[in-house]
Every structure is written in C-alpha cells, then in structure tokens.
Amino acid sequence: MHAQQLRRRRAVCERWAGMTIRSRRETITFKHPFRIKGVDRLLSAGAYEVITDDEMIEGLSFAVFRRVATMIMVPAAAPRSSAMEMLSISSIDLSDAQRIDASAPSE
Predict the structure, then answer these.
(1) Residue ranges of the chain with per-residue pLDDT less than 70
(2) Which of 27, 70, 74, 100 would disulfide-bridge 91, Cβ 3.0–4.6 Å?
(3) pTM, 2 dp
C-alpha cells in the first residue's frame, strides 16, 4: 500500500474516532479480464480482496449502518512487482463490473 493511501486512510479513521465502524473483507472472483472505474488499467481475471467500511448511524433504536468506503486490492502497476495497491472504488462501479463479468460469454 502506498504511503499516501495509508495517510488518507489514517486521516479518515481519525475523523471517525468515536463512531462505530465495521470493516468487512471478502474475496470476489472475476472470470474475465475487467475494468473498473477509478482503476486506470485492465485487470486480469482472478480473485480480488474487497474491503468495505460501514459506519453506524447513531441515535436510532436499532443498529443501522451505511457504507462509507469500498476498497479493492490489485497488483501494483509496476512490471514484475509483487506489491499490491489498495484502491478506493465505488460500490456501484464494483457491482457493474461484476454484472458485466457474469454476462460475458465464456470461452
């Protein structure tokens, strides 16, 4: 993860201090190479880790959360690098990429 991304995530976490935040990690598999808005390159087919942060809405008589961040772990753009990047994406753009992947013809 790049230093700038770490600083940005730390600043967001500090802003959320005192709020209840939950993070969920899941692995999403793409069967075909894909593009997702916010990522400037074609990503290869395979499994990707997605991290979703939700914030609890205070003052209600029951627990309600709203999504505040969605990140995807992708291989770094540098050739022959084993480094990974955590990129912030829209949950809607992720859903669109999954829908397109699912409807693409199998080879």
Answers:
(1) 1-19, 107
(2) 70
(3) 0.72
